[in-house]
Each structure stands twice: as C-alpha cells, then as structure tokens.
Amino acid sequence: MIETELGEMRRTHYSDEITQSMDGSKVTVMGWILTVRGHGNICFATISDKNGELPIVAKKGSCPEDVREEISSLKPHSSVGLTGMVKSSEKAPRGFEIVPQELRVFSKVQKTPPFEPTAKTVKNIDTRLESRPIDLRRAPMRHIFNARSMVLQSVRNYFVQEQFIEINTPKIIATATEGGAALFSIFYYNKEAFLAQSPQLYKEQLAMSFEKVCEIAPIFRAESSRTNRHLSEAISIDLEEAFVDYGDVMDRIEQIITAAARAVSAYAKKHPDAEFSIPIVPEKIPRYTYQELVERMQKAGAKTEWGDDLYPSNLKKIGLEGFYFITDWPLAPKPFYVKESASDPKISESFDLMFGDLELSSGSTRVEKSEKLSQRLADKGLDPEKFGYHLGAFEYGVPPHAGCGIGLERLLMALTGTENIRDVTFYPRDVDRLAP
Ligand code: AMO
Q: What are the pLDDT digits (tens) for 233-265?
C-alpha cells in the first residue's frame, strides 16, 4: 500500500538496531532513499537514516506489486517510511535485508542531486556547501558531525566532573578584547557595537565569584584571509579558573584533549567506515618554551628572531608533529589581560597548544591587579575609560586566575584528520560565504 502522509506510521527501529537475529520480525523504518537499482522483477534500494543504512529488496511475488513499482521509481533523497520483514541473507553485507510490505513516500524528489549521496568525496567544496543540508546526509559528513557531538559531550562531562559551572556571556559587546583588527562592528540601536571575539573579560569577571567557569559558544573574527583553518564564526571552548596559573590550565587541556580523543576513538570503533585519522595524545603533552623553539629554528636555518611570530613554515623546519605546547611567549604582542612572567618582564605566562603547525588553543595567567591592568591597557594604546566596566571589578579582590580558549573546529580537524575547517562546521562563515 502506498500512502503519502505520516499518519499513524511510526518508526520501530533505527538502521543500526536491526540485526540478522531478527529474521522474520516486522519492522518500520524511516529515512531517505540513498540508492535504487531495478532489474526487471527485482528492485534493490538503500534507505539511510541518521545512524546508517538499510538494504531493501523488493522482489516480484514476495512484496505487494504497487510497493515494488513505487520503490523502483524513487529518486535518491526521497523521504520515506517503510514497513517490512527482516530476512536473513548471507549475501547482504550485514547479513539481512528488508522485504517491504507497506511504503509511505512523504516527499518525492524530482531533481537530480548535484552530487551522488553515496559519494565518499566531492571535489568542489563550494558545490557541497551550496547544498549543505543534503551534503550532510553523506556518510562521511554524518560521521564527522556525530563525532563532533561526542567530543562536545566528553568536554561537558569533564567540566561537570571537575565542578565547573557553565556560563553564557554577551555576544554583543562594547569593546574589543583580542585586538582591534579582527572585529565585526554592528549597529546597536543608535550606537556602534561589536560581535564578541571571545568571552575573555566576562569569563574573568565570573571567575571572581564562581571560581571555575566554562563556556562553549561562538566567537566572531573578521578574518580577511582565505585559509583552511580560519572561520569568521567559530566555536570556542573557554575555561577560566581562580587560584591557579597557566601551568594548571595546560594540565586541564591535557585531560580535555585526552577525553575528546577517547570519544572520537570510541565512535570510530563502532563505525569503522568513518575512516578518521586519530592522533595519539601523549600522557604528558611536550612543553617547549618560545625561546627554545626560536633557537632551534635559527639552527635549522630559519630567518627568525626573538620577538617574531612562530610561522608555520618555520615550525615545519624543526619537524614538530602531533600535540605540543609553546610556552612563555614574548609579552609585547599578547593582549592586555595576559600576565608578565615574574622572572622576566619581557616574557608572558602564556601558552599555545599546537597540533603540528595548527594552533588549537591559547591561554595564560591573567593580570589580577587593578593598577597593572590599567597600565597594560595604556601601554597598548587602549583607552582605560572604555574598559571602565571591567576595571571597576578589579577594585574588589580579583583572585589570581588563568584560563584558555580551545577552538572546537580546529580540535576536530586534529582529532579526525580533516584538512579543511569548513568540513567540520555545519554552516561555515568566511570572507566569501554568508549563506546558507
Ligand atoms: P585566541 O585568539 O588564540 O585566544 O583564540 C583561541 C582559539 O580559538 C580558535 N580560533 C579560531 N578558530 C577558527 N577560526 C578563527 N578565525 C579563529 N580564531 C581563533 C583557535 C585559537 O587557538 N581569549 C583568548 C583565549 C584565552 O586566553 O582564554 C583567545 O581568544 O583554536
């Protein structure tokens, strides 16, 4: 029987819940058509749902004739519900197939999709992004975003277990925190305002009362360069903690990355077709000082001096791979809230977590003394009056504190072996893309 409405039909099983041992059971599955192949009296189709795929075999004589004809006429992506019998079959990859009895076609597709729904790779990423909702139906994409969800769960579990409280800070703000250039300005009633580059100042203020705070939320960066690692809107995993320094934060990052990598490995174990390339997370992630790496680069023939940024091309020259920290950066280029080292005022108590030449996180011990913070703002040519709302808090016993921001998308690139940041982002925003 062919119907076109959901009506009373409800799913009994997701694709991954049906097994060979259910031979003879009646099941109702829902999803979309992935493939259809008709051979005269027999039609093979695949229905896909959020968890995987199911083989449907409609053979003359073993299923209603109108159902067989309708299935063989369906185009990929048509959305369907199907009731049928599980039939054990040694030839089928998972040891069973489904013999249909009843079909409901909720949305019939007429158009040919811009790429095969079964395609493992589609060369032109723009073609995929233009049709993102159907691109996300492809198995490689499904695996990445399922793994993303697992990573987020593992990070949140870590925060809960360690007694962090989850905060939400304003994304429409009055002043820049990470430096002026990469700032999006917007109209806010009759004033100029900005999209938050990070929750920096708010998370520091909230650490005054809640001590251990975390936020997983968008950050906005007006990045004018077109690269495979920059987005205009990214998700940052931020943490801030009172009565600790940057060394303690690096310890936390080690634990967070380990938990996240475990989550991806567990997912990949359950879904061997995910084909992730999962890196090893060392129990102790190596920590190199900035100074040490500049010297190594110079020995390797790189034209770099103390004070320069550590460019990917130079990092490649000294062959650093996998996860490592670069610590104790020069203070001068660091934002005003980063604390100077007690042993040398030219150096900051700061770090970047790297994966090869990809920066995954940065963090630091923060300035906690009010006069010092005002002075650092002035040194940077920023107007302390504009930061009055923040400086005011520092009149009232701000504890020593430290924290970091981890880029979720970059972390996923590292944990799955994905090269383009757009592939780990549902709807990427970059210089050229504002839709879909
Ligand atoms: P930072 O500016 O280094 O530090 O940002 C922290 C991390 O966020 C990610 N990230 C990005 N990911 C994709 N596209 C971008 N345009 C982009 N910009 C940043 C990176 C980066 O390491 N407030 C500090 C953090 C702190 O000290 O707590 C900050 O924002 O993975």
A: 999 999 999 999 999 999 999 999 999 999 999
What H or E segment, with its residue span, contains residue 250?
Answer: helix 246-270
Structure tokens at 355: 């994966």
The residue written with tokens 């007694």 in the block is 163
Residue 89's identity, in one-letter code, is S
| Strand ranges in 131-286 using DSSP code E only, listed in sequence order | 165-166, 172-173, 185-188, 191-195, 212-220, 233-242
Ligand 1 centroid vs 334 CA: distance in angstroms? 13
Q: How many CA atoms lie within 13 A of 238 on its CB side?
A: 24
Report how far Cα 225 is from the mean position of its chain's Cα atoms: 20
Query: Hey, what are 393's tokens?
Result: 């808090």
Q: Is the pLDDT of residue 102 over 70?
A: yes
Do the Cβ atoms of 101 and 67 come closer than 8 Å?
yes
Predicted structure pTM score? 0.96
Amino acid symbol at 120: K
* Exposure on the CB side of residue 330, measured as CA atoms within 13 A: 11
Predicted pLDDT of residue 339? 98
Ligand 1 neighbours by CB, cut-off 6 Å: 178, 198, 200, 221, 223, 230-231, 234, 236, 238, 359-364, 403-405, 407, 409-410
Q: Could you give phi then psi for residue 317, rounded to 5 degrees?
A: -60, -30
Strand residues in 121-273 grouped as ranges (E): 165-166, 172-173, 185-188, 191-195, 212-220, 233-242
CA nearest neighbour of 136 among 108, 117, 112, 151: 117
Residue 180 confidence (pLDDT): 61
Instruction: List, edge to edge, every strand of the sheet that includes 185-188.
Output: 172-173, 191-195, 185-188
DSSP track, 7-42? TT------GGG--GGGTT-EEEEEEEEEEEEEETTE
Strands 212-220, 165-166: pairing is parallel
Ligand 1 atom with the smallest distance to the CA of 198 is 30
- In one-letter notation, the amino acid at residue 418 is T
